[in-house]
């Protein structure tokens, strides 16, 4: 295999993030194979045909099957509304394509479980839990392995975004319970929950509440017609892992003026703090007053170096797709980092539990 042909499904912001990563990978890293942008699958093939050609795509269509029937693709990157993922994953598998799927896996844990039942063991696939590839997350994991802050007691996370506070922001698929399955808890809460699992293992219990503050939005820009919103703007969760670590997770898409992804991990010897929105390394605070030398994980090799950085958000997507390509060529390094569709289900079932519990309480 000298190249890997990619079919990209979708052309929204996250698809463009994948495209930037794939185009820059061979510039920044020496790869065992060349990623090639074979096909773009979009609802607007005619309108995007010229732009797709400029980007480097060889083919544009509105049907995934049509793209894959050409026989030039080996991997499918799925960047569409959550409720479309399951069928697109199945279609990709029917053409023996490696699957790179945006999170969450589907719009609900129930649908994800049904999909997982169709995925063969060891099928080449990866879920875009890209914060696992954040340099600070990698460093925190190594610090935890070495016991630098002692036995962990608590983990508290606050992931604050602000783009949905404006009530004039029009309705979109991310605000549709049918297409997305949830709001802040489904969109960004899954990242926070996955980091806890990634660092500390499975959950014993997750309880919480969700709330919708902006209950109606215009159908489109400048429209006076309003549509009711049934997904959350904010969620708060209390967590406990099977190993006894307790903590809290708060997520919001209306935290205007305080965008951050704050991590606070407390152990018997001290704590670690970090804001993943801006920090590439955690701050370590030890009771002893000693300033420790932090371990350097070799998985940092997946990321661009300091001179080639594209910003920490894009870098994490870059590293995730870099790892995906290496894994496709048989490189099994850092296998314990690679997130799978099953990892998605492991947090989605708790998300659905919190959503259902909150709805029942509000009745």
Automatic annotation (TrEMBL):
Pfam families in the record: GFO_IDH_MocA, GFO_IDH_MocA_C3
Gene Ontology MF: a single term: oxidoreductase activity
Domain of life: Bacteria
SUPFAM superfamilies, A to Z: Glyceraldehyde-3-phosphate dehydrogenase-like, C-terminal domain, NAD(P)-binding Rossmann-fold domains
Domain Gfo/Idh/MocA-like oxidoreductase N-terminal: 5-119
Oxidoreductase is among the record's keywords: yes
Protein name as it appears in the record: Gfo/Idh/MocA family oxidoreductase
InterPro entries in the record: Gfo/Idh/MocA-like_OxRdtase_N, Gfo/Idh/MocA_oxidrdct_glycsds, GFO_IDH_MocA-like_dom, NAD(P)-bd_dom_sf
Record's keyword annotation contains Oxidoreductase: yes
Domain GFO/IDH/MocA-like oxidoreductase: 138-272
Sorted UniProt keywords: Oxidoreductase
Protein species of origin: Paenibacillus agilis
